Amino acid sequence: MAPEDELSRFFAVSLDLLCIAGFDGYFKRLNPAWTTGLGWTLEEFLAVLSDRELQVFRLIGEGRGTRQIAEALHLSIKTIESHREHLKHKLKLESSAELAQRASQWVETGRTA
């Protein structure tokens, strides 16, 4: 079996959240587990979230506040606030509470898959 075929099969059957990201910070490939419990299509993830936004999203899902995220990523609070606003816009979420709920769901799904 060719290596690309093995990778495709592994991506298809894995229950874990698997991805391949490019140097530009965007996802290039995601496996179907991303859509199972998250409610977004693979195309939505591939189109919208940069690596940094995904990091911030994960930390929000872990229950960290803006200041804690800024310290963990060595960024300013203003930068994290900007990432939070971009995430809400890109994911079509109305409020910070909705963002936290979706991020928490994503973290829980990713860790239990």
Order of helices and strands: HEEHHHHHH
Number of domains: 1
Our estimate of the beta-strand percent is 5-15%
CATH class: Mainly Alpha
Q: How is the main sheet built?
A: 2 strands, antiparallel
Q: What's the pLDDT, averaged over the residues?
A: 83
DSSP summary: helix tally: 7
Shape field: elongated
Strand numbers in spatial order across the main sheet? 1-2
Beginning-to-end CA distance, first to last residue: 27 Å
Specify the CATH architecture. Orthogonal Bundle
CATH level-four homologous superfamily name: Winged helix-like DNA-binding domain superfamily/Winged helix DNA-binding domain
Tell me the number of strands: 2
CATH fold-level label: Arc Repressor Mutant, subunit A
User: Which ranges are low-confidence, i.e. pLDDT below 50, for 5 or more consecutive residues?
Assistant: none
Radius of gyration over all CA atoms, rounded: 15 Å
SS-based class:
mainly alpha
- Helical coverage, percent range: 55-70%
